[in-house]
Design brief:
Elements (H helix, E strand, L loop, with lengths): L1 E6 L7 H5 L7 E5 L2 E10 L4 E9 L1 H7 L21 H10 L1 H4 L7 H4 L3 E11 L3 H9 L5 E8 L9 E13 L1 H16 L9 H10 L9 H8 L4 H12 L36 H16 L3 E5 L5 H7 L6 E6 L2 H11 L6 H5 L1 E5 L14 E5 L10 H12 L3 E7 L24 H15 L1 E8 L10 E8 L6
Parallel strand pairs: 8-9, 8-11, 9-10, 11-12
Antiparallel strand pairs: 1-4, 1-5, 2-3, 3-4, 5-7, 6-7, 12-14, 13-14
């Protein structure tokens, strides 16, 4: 099985520095299933291609795989020597370990920079077809070309096989590209050649921590990567919930899985009522407040992956909706989630999606009945909060501003949580700290604030999320 990685970033031979593999040598690496080789079919200033070739020894693989559910003959006669699978994913992790970590002593600025990449996989098992490959890679910034491989070119009437020829193109940081492949190759195959244990959750979090929580297909990715083992899947979702609030709603098994089965979790009862996920409660609280305010135009500041935007579009009372985020990757994911390219024209006319930083004055923020900052302020460096306050409350000055943020006092109710709820949080406020900040905003910019709990209001530590609904003093004449 083979994987090729090409770049046209000049000088293209710098790819050797990033991969820590010299373009003029063939290097071999012993694997449990055979031998991995790295070589360069082409290496010049304009284009450089590195190939990872895994030579699988079917007999060695059968002897080291332990007890298998395969038929005895199937352990020796299969597609593993030819088709990309978790075998190649493991080899990639071993051979390009330093590159996956984004480390390059000689070219550190290059390792941190997106470069034009083209990745080719000529035979990839894809349970879900070319469409699934597009669903998994497109939100990550790739242009995807996935062509089905016919069962037999001589007999087209037989149809297509389960394999695709996959080509990915995009301006992506090499470390990110390798981690995308490491996670998604076994997901597309929906199989692993080795026993999946609890350490696989750690591997998934390390490789996907920067993007998996916000991926529209994170549920499918996590379940398949962990071989549909419910205990491991739940553990992974709980870990991801610390990285992104959107993940909380995915903790419950999908409705098509039967309680009591391994997929749904051993010992589950059919009539057990699951508590509504916090991010759903948060969206409902924001939507309820907007309904009370009778807002007709709304801007979602820091829209992330677009979950709130989707709910706003479903409200026919809202005639104009804007959504802004500083992250272009988040906007790409939002566009994919919202199916922007296929959105009906009347629905699309109500929506404006754009990139912007909330700490810099932007005329596009102004003119709305209400602005929403849902789980946003805690991502701002404290010295920049004053700038955000001036931009939103001082310059844009919407009639109402709705702000939600974690309540740090509630963190003791998360036994597995270490530190803050998200690795990008710059701080998390207690209830008194949030009220103090909001009161100062009101005093400086002429607003009043109504404080509300979101989620169960614990008598000792308060709610998991706290919300303030700001109203501009004097209404529209202020």
């Amino acid at each position: 099985m083979i994987l090729t990685i090409s770049t046209t970033a000049r000088p293209a031979t710098d790819l050797g520095y990033l991969l820590h593999k010299h373009p003029h040598r063939v290097q071999e690496f012993t694997q449990s299933c055979g031998v991995a080789r790295v070589f360069y079919p082409e290496a010049n200033e304009n284009r450089c291609t590195a190939a990872l070739l895994l030579d699988v020894d079917a007999i060695r693989l059968a002897r080291t795989s332990g007890r298998s559910a395969d038929y005895a003959l199937g352990q020796y006669v299969n597609d593993r020597p030819y088709a990309v699978s978790s075998l190649l994913s493991v080899a990639l992790a071993d051979v390009f370990r330093t590159a996956r970590a984004g480390r390059c002593t000689l070219k550190p600025e290059l390792a941190a920079t997106p470069i034009p990449l083209e990745i080719s996989l000529p035979a990839l098992p894809c349970r879900g077809g070319p469409e699934l490959a597009e669903q998994l890679f497109t939100p990550l910034g790739w242009t995807v070309e996935a062509r089905p491989v016919p069962l037999d070119d001589a007999f087209p009437e037989w149809g297509d096989s389960r394999y695709v020829r996959l080509t990915l193109r995009g301006d992506i940081r090499l470390a990110d590209a390798l981690n995308h492949l490491y996670v998604l190759l076994p997901v597309l195959d929906d199989a692993k050649h080795y026993w999946v244990a609890s350490d696989e959750v750690d591997k998934l979090i390390r490789a996907g921590g920067s993007w998996l929580a916000e991926h529209p297909e994170s549920t499918l990715i996590t379940r398949r990567y962990l071989r549909h083992q419910s205990a491991l899947t739940r553990s992974a979702f709980e870990r991801l919930a610390e990285l992104g609030d959107d993940v909380a709603e995915r903790l419950e098994p999908p409705v098509d899985e039967e309680p009591g089965s391994d997929a749904a979790g051993i010992g589950c009862e059919a009539d057990t009522a699951a508590a509504p996920p916090l991010n759903l409660l948060r969206r409902e609280a924001v939507l309820g407040a907007l309904g009370e305010l009778e807002a007709r135009t709304v801007i979602d500041l820091g829209c992330g992956s677009g979950q709130l935007v989707s709910a706003l579009l479903d409200d026919p009372r809202l005639t104009e909706i804007a959504a802004a985020d500083v992250s272009t990757r988040a906007l790409t994911i939002a566009a994919h989630r919202l199916r922007l390219d296929r959105m009906p024209e009347r629905r699309r006319e109500r929506l404006q999606l754009f990139q912007a930083a909330l700490t810099y004055t932007d005329s596009r923020f102004a003119g709305y009945d209400a602005a929403v900052l849902m789980e946003v302020v805690e991502h701002i460096d404290p010295p920049r909060l004053t700038a955000l306050e001036q931009v939103i409350f001082g310059t844009a000055r919407p009639g109402h501003v709705i702000v939600t943020t974690p309540n740090s006092e509630y963190n003791v109710r998360y036994p597995e949580l270490e530190g803050m709820r998200h690795r990008d949080h710059r701080f998390e406020w207690s209830r008194s700290e949030f009220r103090s900040w909001a009161s100062n905003v009101c005093r400086v910019h002429g607003y009043t604030a109504d404080f509300r709990p979101v989620g169960e209001d614990d008598p000792e530590v308060g709610p998991p999320t706290q919300m303030a609904v700001f109203a501009r003093a004097g209404g529209s004449d202020a």
